[in-house]
């Protein structure tokens, strides 16, 4: 019987790594199984790491203009100085998604999103990437091209707006810009973390390449903390978020509270 369990774990680990990793560890501890299961757990642990890396890579918005965007990064973006609430309605749902944006701890990232909402930019755009297998991951939208390669083009410039990576470590007075926490040598976790219902900005390999693409975290995604900018959380309508399907369209997005906290670029 014990000899079959490692094979069973290995087979399922190919399609359910994240779910099985926690369960299998408890099974080993409670049943004191032989070293074969320990070997299987190590394989699953390794695969979990690889899946995490692979998932992280899928958050890249693969715009050719974004990869080398730092020299052209927008420097006069509006900031959100305080909190704001956005109501997002999908064509596929009768209930709206309510999002509280945190401009106190992510002023540029939240300000960029509020500015785009105010412009009506997100209206009619689709969620072009929704990943739930092998476990809930993200629902990503905000691309005007609908294929993961686009961003917001500033009117009259024909250039994509990009903003700096903005992450505030716990205990810090100000966010760190243009660097992941690891590359900045910061060991503390970010203040705004990838909990289920977090909203964050997608980007390419360049830290300062986020434009308009955002994603909802469909589960706690701690392995993304410190690498991507979280700027708010869903406060109501998480059931709608959990049911988003690829191709679902945003009917409308509007600021319902806190628009006065958006400060235009000087």
Secondary structure: elements and pairs:
Elements: H1 4-31, H2 35-58, H3 64-67, E1 79-80, E2 83-90, E3 97-102, H4 107-118, E4 127-131, E5 138-141, E6 166-167, E7 176-177, E8 198-201, E9 214-217, E10 230-236, H5 238-242, E11 250-257, E12 262-263
Antiparallel strand pairs: 1-12, 2-3, 2-11, 3-10, 4-5, 5-9, 6-7, 8-9, 8-10
Helix pairs in contact: 1-2
Can you tell me about this structure?
By secondary structure, the chain is of the alpha+beta class. 27% of the residues lie in helices and 20% in strands. It has 5 helices and 12 strands. It starts with a helix and ends with a strand. Residues 1-44 and 62-72 have low confidence and may be disordered.
Mean pLDDT: 81
| Radius of gyration, taken over Cα atoms and rounded to an integer in Å | 20 Å
SSE ordering: HHHEEEHEEEEEEEHEE
Number of helices: 5
Specify the structural class: alpha+beta
Outline: globular
Largest sheet: 8 strands, antiparallel
- How many strand units? 12
Low-confidence stretches: 1-44, 62-72
Termini gap: 71 Å
As a percent range, the share of strand residues is: 15-25%
Task: List the keywords.
266 residues; alpha+beta; 12 strands; disordered N terminus
Quick rundown:
The chain is of the alpha+beta class. It is built from 5 helices and 12 strands.
């Amino acid at each position: 019987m014990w000899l079959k369990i490692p094979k069973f774990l290995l087979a399922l680990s190919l399609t359910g790594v994240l779910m099985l990793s926690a369960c299998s560890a408890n099974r080993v501890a409670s049943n004191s199984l032989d070293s074969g299961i320990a070997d299987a757990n190590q394989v699953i642990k390794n695969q979990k790491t690889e899946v995490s890396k692979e998932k992280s890579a899928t958050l890249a918005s693969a715009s050719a203009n974004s990869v080398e965007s730092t020299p052209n990064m927008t420097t006069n973006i509006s900031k959100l100085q305080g909190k704001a609430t956005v109501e997002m309605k999908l064509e596929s749902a009768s209930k709206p998604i309510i999002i509280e944006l945190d401009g106190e701890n992510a002023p540029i990232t939240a300000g960029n999103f509020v500015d785009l909402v105010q412009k009506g930019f997100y209206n009619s755009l689709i969620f072009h990437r929704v990943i739930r297998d092998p476990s809930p991951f993200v629902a990503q939208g905000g691309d005007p091209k609908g294929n993961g390669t686009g961003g917001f083009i500033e009117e009259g410039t024909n250039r994509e707006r990009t903003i700096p990576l903005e992450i505030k470590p716990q205990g810090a007075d100000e966010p760190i810009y243009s660097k992941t926490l690891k590359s900045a040598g910061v060991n503390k976790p970010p203040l705004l973390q990838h909990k289920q219902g977090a909203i964050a900005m997608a980007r390419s390999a360049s830290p300062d390449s986020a434009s308009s693409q955002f994603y909802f975290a469909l589960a706690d995604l701690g392995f993304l903390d410190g690498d991507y900018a979280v700027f708010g959380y869903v406060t109501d309508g998480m059931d709608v978020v959990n049911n988003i399907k690829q191709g679902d369209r945003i009917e409308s997005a509007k600021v319902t509270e806190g628009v006065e906290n958006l400060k235009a670029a000087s």
